[in-house]
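Below is how a single chain appears once it has passed through the pipeline. First comes the sequence as given, then the structure the pipeline wrote out for it. We keep one example in the README because the format questions we get most often are answered faster by looking than by reading.
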Amino acid sequence: MIELRTPAEIEQMRPAGRFVASVIEATAAAAKVGVNLLELDALAHEMIRKAGAESCYIDYHPSFGASPFGKVLCTSVNDAVLHGLPFDYTLKDGDLLSVDFAASVGGWVSDSAKSVVVGTPRDEDLRLIRTTERALDAGIAAARPGNRIGDISRAIADVAREQGYSINTDFGGHGVGRTMHGDPHVPNNGRPGRGLPLRPGLVIAIEPWFLETTDRIFTDPDGWTLRSADGSRGAHSEHTIAITDGDPLVLTARG
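Resulting structure:
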């Protein structure tokens, strides 16, 4: 069921957005050569505890997950692009890391993701990250009353195709509210003028993710981590936004 939030409810969602943004910033900044993925998860866990927030991940067990997630942060490295289950891995120079985090504050959820290069960057990785960020900006810009979900999806896809990346639509954006994942689904490719009309009060996560040379993925033996079929690297950017009468409101804006 698709729910539209009142202006007062959207105001109540702001603290969750600010908190999620702060965790994304902190974990991305802490991602240095020699840091273990479990240390990043522990940092996010401690921030949840101090804020009195609730993790959306630790007990999460959807149909596509092998078991409850068990951690509070997604950490996807190199050829992993989504749902990366933190494990005993120490970051190396040149690793491409995506951190994805969702939490509930005061009963409202926000969700966000960011990709960074650890240490010495490859030009190809920086280009991939920039493309996801540009696609996210384009998707947000299309999130206005009078447009439809397909307009967001097409705006994302246009940026990806301009840079020569193919697009997987198995996983994409989604509604956000009292729970992390709800309707509507927001694919990263679509036809303009199609899909759900965008109305003030709709709150969604928009999340472009692209792989360098493929659009095919498989699930790691851990039952969660999604990796590229050909070993190429992936990047992921995400914000939770609210549709308003004017400009979209980015609830998880950073900095």
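Residues 175 and 183 are 5 Å apart (CA to CA).

See the next section for the split statistics.
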